[in-house]
Amino acid sequence: MMEYAKRRMPRQRPSEDQRRFLETLCALGPQDNAQTAGVRKSTKRACQVRGWVEWRCLDLCPGVRAWHLTMIGRKVLNASGGLRRQAPGYSSVAF
Fold first, then answer.
1. Which of 47, 76, 81, 85 is deepest in the core (most CB within 10 A)?
2. Whole-angstrom Cα distance, residue 74 to residue 77?
3. Are 20 and 41 in contact (CB under 8 A)?
């Protein structure tokens, strides 16, 4: 029986800069280069190489390209503790 190749090392977690970039895309939606000017190009490229973001056209504007968060990027962000959501009925205040 044939077996698929397995990853030798687990995937890296995003660095602090990469995590902030992913959180921005998750919170605000697709962003173009003008809106993400504060993020270094190398950070965007590193996220793209890992498959966390895509540089593609907006749905409503075929000629305008923007950074989009992929499903893999969303999963990495959730796994790294980027999106911290509380369960309903619980408070962050300790008594």
1. 47
2. 5
3. no
Q: Of 41, 38, 49, give the one whose Cα is nearest residue 14.
A: 49
Per-residue pLDDT at 2: 76
Do 43 and 18 touch, CB atoms closer than 8 A?
A: yes
What pTM, to 2 d.p., does this model score? 0.70
Domain count, the chain: 1
Q: Are 44 and 35 in contact (CB under 8 A)?
A: no
The per-residue pLDDT for 54 is 93
pLDDT tens digits for 9-24? 666 789 999 999 999 9
Calpha distance 5→1 (Å, rounded): 13
Whether 2 is covered by a domain: the verdict is no
In terms of Cα–Cα distance, which of 12, 8, 9 is closest to 79?
12
Segments forming the whole domain that contains residue 75: 16-79
Residue labelled with tokens 């996220």: 47
Whether residue 73 is contained in a domain is answered as: yes
